[in-house]
Amino acid sequence: MVSAIKKEIHLRRDFLQNRSLKSLYFGGGTPSVLSVDDLQSVIDEVLKYFSFESDIEITLEANPDDLDKNFLSGLAKTPFNRLSIGTQSFFNEDLKLMNRAHNASEAEGSIKRAQDFGFENISIDLIYGSPTSNMEIWKQNLKKTVGLEIPHVSAYALTVEPKTALESWINKGKVASPKEEVQHEEFIFMTDFLRDHGFEHYEISNFAKPGMHSRHNSAYWEGKEYLGIGPSAHSFNGSDRRSWNIAHNKKYIDQISSSVLPEEHEILSPKDQFNEMLMIGLRTERGVSLERLKSQFSDEFLERFYAQMRSKAANGILSIDSNYLKIPEEKWFMADGIAADLFMV
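Request: output the structure for the sequence above.
Response:
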C-alpha cells in the first residue's frame, strides 16, 4: 500500500496550484499501524514535488493502542508535530459500546506517553450522548481532558450507523437508543465548560486553545483546495471540481500500478457551490462572508436567500457581524437544519 500511495503522489504532483504546503494530514483510517519508516518515506515522497512552509502542521491520526514507547520514540525523530488521538472516552463502558480496541487506561496512558516524547500539539476525539454515559460521566470526561492539558478537542454526538453492532444491539433492546435531548444538554454543557477553561469554540465540533486551531480542517471549512491520497481519499480544487478515489484497496493498488488514477469526480454547479459554502461556513465561529456570496453569485440567484436570511435574523436564528453571516452558538446544535433552510433548491 505504501508504494501505491507514493506512486499516486507522483501521478498527482501537478494537482495543487500552491506548491508550498501549510498542512499535511495522515488520517482517514489508521495510519498509525504503519511503521515510522513507512510514514517518513511518504513525507520524503511529498517533498520531491512540494515544499513545506517553515511552520507546517503535520498531523498523524492514531489509535491509543498504537502509541507505545517504541513507536513514539521513532515518531519524535520525524517531522510529525501534531497527533490526533481517537480517544472517544475515558470510561470503559463507553469504549466497549463503541467497539474500541483500547481501554480507558490506555486512552489516558497514550496521551501522557506522547507528551513525554515532546508532542504538545495533541487533539483528541470525544463522543457524547452515549447510552452507557450520563451527564456526570460526560463531566468527568471533560475534566480529564482539561487535566491532561490537551489543547484541541473534537467532540461528536454518538450516531447509530446502519449494519453496525450498535444498531443490532439497539434493535434487540440490549442497549438504549441515543436521545437527542440528552445529547443537546451535554453539548451545551461542553461549550460552557471548555470556554471557561480557555478553549475557543471555532467550529461546531471543534474546540482549541488560542493558536491551536487545526489548520488542515480549517482549510475544508474555508473552501480551500486540498489533495487527498489513498483509497477513498477526496480532493477539491478550491472551486468547482471534487474528486474521490475508489474505496476498494486491491482495485486501488492495481490501477495505481498501471499509472491510472482510480478516481471519480463531479463538477459542482453554482447551486451546489452555494449550498456547500453555506453548509460548511455556518458550522464555524467566523461564519459565511456575505461579500464573497455577493461577488460569486448574481443578485437574482441570491434573492430567495436574502429573504430567508432577513427572516431568520429577525427571529435571532442568524446574526450578521462584520459582514459575516453566523448562527449564534446556542443554536449550533441545529446548524444543519438552519443551513438547509437557506439552500438553493
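DSSP finds 14 helices and 13 strands in the chain.
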